Amino acid sequence: MKDRIFRVNLTDMTTTVEDVPESWAGHGGRGLTSTIVAAEVDPTCHPLGPKNKLVFAPGLLSGTVAANSGRLSVGGKSPLTGTIKEANGGGTAAQLMARCGVKALILEGQPADDKWFSLAVTPEGVTIEEETELVGKGNFAVLETLSTRLENNPAIITIGPAGEMKMAAANISIKDPDGGIRSNGRGGLGAVMGSKRVKFISVTPGDAKLEIADPEAFKAANRTFAKALVDHPVSQALGQYGTNVLVNIINESGGLPTKNFTQGQFEGHEKISGETMHDTIKERGGRVKHNCHPGCVIQCSQVYHDADGKKLTSGFEYESIWAMGADCCVDNLDHIAMADKLMDDIGIDSIETSVAFGVAMEAGILEFGDGEGVCRMLKEDVATGTGLGRVIGNGAGSVGRTYGVTRVPVVKNQAIPAYDPRAIKGIGITYATSTQGADHTMGYTIATNILNVGGAVDPLTKEGQVELSRNLQIATAAIDSTGMCLFIAFAALDNEECLPALIDLLNARFGISLTADDVVNLGKYILKTEREFNEKAGFTNLDDRLPEFFYNEPLSPHNVVFDFSGEEIDTFWDF
Questions:
Q1: What single DSSP character describes residue 516?
Q2: pLDDT tens for residues 494-525?
Q3: pLDDT per residue as tens digits for the range 384-404
Q4: How far apart are CA 560 and CA 460, in angstroms?
Q5: Contact 438, 414 (CB under 8 A)
Q6: Who contacts 20 (Cβ-Cβ below 8 Å, separation ≥6)?
Q7: Cα(308)–Cα(306) distance, rounded to whole angstroms?
Q8: Secondary structure (H, E, C), 114-149
Q9: Is the peptide bond prior to 557 cis by the omega test (within 30 degrees of 0)?
Q10: Average pLDDT over residues 458-480
Q11: Which of 15, 32, 70, 511 could form a disulfide with 27 if both were Cys (CB 3.0 to 4.6 A apart)?
C-alpha cells in the first residue's frame, strides 16, 4: 500500500488523495505533523478559526508488527498555548490508518453552518456524512453506538462534549483494543476538531497491508528490540504497577507537587500509590496489565474495578492520579478513578483539568480533599458547560485569571505535570523550553534525575540539567516520529542493542540506510521547526520561563527553589 496524503476541506466539503511531497517523505508522527503545520498554517491565525489545520499522522513504524509502535500523532496550533502542538496517544487508530496508506490526514477549513459531520477513512479515501445522533453525547456512548452501527470493527477517533464546546483542555479520544479510551490529551486539540465540527472519524483498512522492504531483517530487528524492552527493569515495574509506581518514588524524592504546588510530599501517598492500586485491582478482579494498543510488550495500562467488581476506568495513569490525588489532596482512589472515567467521557485532559481543580481549591471554590465535589462539578458543570464549567474546562490558567490566584502552575498557559521543578531541576528546564508548554513527555529527565536510567544527574543541583534536557528532547522528538511509545526510551538509554535495533527496523521497513546521526539530526530539525513556528506566532525566549512562585517559594522538605537564570535557560537552544 503506497503512502498518500488524505485531505478533507470542511469549507467546501471536498476530499482529495494526494501524492506525498518529497520533502515530507522521510517524516512520520510528530515530525510530519509539525512539518505540515509549519508549512500550511499561518502562525498568527486563531486556533479555532478556519485557517488552523488538524493533522493526524501515524508513525514511521505504525501498521507494522514492531513492538510498541501504535501511537498516533495529532498536530495543529493549540488553543490552550497558542504554540504549535503535537499530542500522541495509543489505541487502534495508528495501526489501521497506516494500513489504509494514510501518511497524513489533514482537516482544513470550517463548515459555514452549524451541522456536525463524521468522516470515514478507507484505503480509497475519505467520505463525509452529516452526524445528528451522537452530537452532545459522551465518548462512551459514541463508542457503544458505533459498535453496532459500523461493521468490521473500525478504529474510532472521537471528541466528547468538551471538544464540541471548544474548551481549551479538550482532548481527542481513540478506541483501544478492548473498547476503552486512550487520549491524545494535551493542548486542546479536541477543541480544534470541534471547530471543524467533526464528531468522529472511523478508520477501516479492510484487507490492506503494509509493504516491508526487507521482511527478514525486520523480523530479526524486532526480536532484538522487543527483548530489550521486556528485559529492562523499569519496563517490568511498569507492567506490574503501571505508571502509578511513581507516586511513592516521587514522594520520596520530595518532588511530588501537593496542595497546588505548596509542598513536595503528600501525607496520603500510600493510599493512592501504584502498590495500593495493584492490590486493589487484584482484590476486585480487574486487570493489572493491559495493552493500550496492539503490539505493546510493556503493558503499563490496567483495568480498575469499583468495590462491586464492575469496571470503573482503564488506562489509569500516574500523572492523572497525582493531579487529582496529591495536587488536590484527594486520598481516595475510587474518587480519583471516578473522576478519571468522567474526564474520559467528557473528553478533557485529565492533567490540565485536575490541575485547574487544584487552583480552584486554592481560590476557595472547593475544599482541598473533596473528591466527591470534584466528581459532582465534572458532571454538573464541566460536562454541561456552565459558566464555572467552562472556566475549569479552559484550564488552570483560566481558573487563575478568573479568580485572581497567583500560584498558577503553567508554562505557556499549559499546566505543569507531576514533578516539581524545584526538587527535580532537570524537568524544570524541559517545562521552560518545551515548544509546546509544560509537558514532561517532551524530555523526561525523571529517567536520569530519579530513576538513574542512562546515568545519574543529581536532581537538586543545576549541573548537567540543561544538557540532559536538551539531549532527551532531541531524542524524544525523533521517537515521537516513529509511532513508538516513549517508554522505549528506558531500554534505549541502558541497552546498547536497543537503539540500533530501532534504526534497523526503520531501514528494513523502507529499504534505507539511516544512521544514529540521522536520527539525532531528525530530532534537532523537529525542535527547530517547532520553535520557528512559535517565534512567528509571537513567542520569544521570555516565554521560556517558569511562574514566579517557583523562584520565590521554597519547597519542603528540601526547602529549594528553581534557581536557573534566564541566560542559563536560554543556552538550551545552543545546538
A1: H
A2: 999 999 999 999 999 999 999 999 999 999 99
A3: 999 999 999 999 999 999 999
A4: 8
A5: yes
A6: 3, 4, 5, 103
A7: 5
A8: CCEEEEEEECCEEEEEEECCCCCCCHHHHHHHHHHH
A9: yes
A10: 97
A11: 32
Residue range 101-126: mean pLDDT, rounded: 97
What is the tens place of the pLDDT at every residue in 471-499? 999 999 999 999 999 899 999 999 999 99
Q: For the chain, how many residues are written?
A: 575
Computed over every residue of the chain, the mean pLDDT equals: 96
Per-residue pLDDT band for 434 (boundaries 50, 70, 90) equals very high
Let me know: does 157 contact 203? Beta carbons within 8 Å: yes
Distance CA 545, CA 453 (A): 27
8 Å CB contact between 96 and 84 = no
Q: Which residue has the cell 509537558?
A: 439
Torsion of CA 399, 183, 453, 483, to 10 degrees: -140
Which of 70, 51, 45 shows the shortest CA–CA distance to 60? 70
Distance, CA of 392 to CA of 356 (rounded, Å): 6
Distance of CA 416 to the CA centre of its chain: 13
- CA distance to 106, 258, 537, per residue, from 397 (Å): 29, 18, 19
Question: What's the pTM?
Answer: 0.97
Q: Are strands 155-158 and 198-203 parallel, antiparallel or unpaired?
A: antiparallel
Contacts of 224 (CB under 8 A, 6+ apart): 497, 498, 501, 504
Q: Nine-digit cell at 313?
A: 476506568
CB 79 within 8 A of CB 191: yes
Q: Which one-letter DSSP state was computed for residue 544?
A: S
> Which residues, in sequence order, are CB contacts of 455 under 8 Å at separation 6+?
448, 493
CA 546, CA 549: separation in Å to the nearest integer? 8
Return the SS3 of 547: coil
CA 526 to chain centre: 17
